[in-house]
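Reminder to self: tokens first, then the designed residues, so the page reads top to bottom the way the pipeline ran.
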């Protein structure tokens, strides 16, 4: 059974950085697509970045040049490095995973973490 736990969220000033972690169990990065999503109050869940077979398969326009996705295969941990944060980045951030190549969209992922809140103050 695949299990995901996000951590690293918090309150940060605009222009600052945060690194989110997604600790996983029950999966291998070699055979799963993994990704980061976020959801702000009153808005739909937004895909940010997805990773499949070691390569970034999707990069959302809203985070290009500011956010990067990486993984530690030994620790089976996924990371989201967020730089140059803006107030509009305030949201609950989720990691997701599913077996095989997937489109980077909410409906393609069956397994989700509980989320970690990121708040960016102006």
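Designed residues (122 positions):
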């Amino acid at each position: 059974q695949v299990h995901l736990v996000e951590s690293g969220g918090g309150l940060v000033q605009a222009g600052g950085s945060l690194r989110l972690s997604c600790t996983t169990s029950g999966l291998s990065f070699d055979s799963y697509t993994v990704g980061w999503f976020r959801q702000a109050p009153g808005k739909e869940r937004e895909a940010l970045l997805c990773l499949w077979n070691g390569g970034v398969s999707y990069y959302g326009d809203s985070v290009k040049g500011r956010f990067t996705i990486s993984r530690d295969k030994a620790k089976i941990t996924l990371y989201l490095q967020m730089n140059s944060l803006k107030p509009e980045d305030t949201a609950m951030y989720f990691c997701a995973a599913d077996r095989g190549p997937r489109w980077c969209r909410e409906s393609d992922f069956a397994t989700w973490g509980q989320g970690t809140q990121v708040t960016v103050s102006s």
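The first strand starts at residue 3 and ends at 7.
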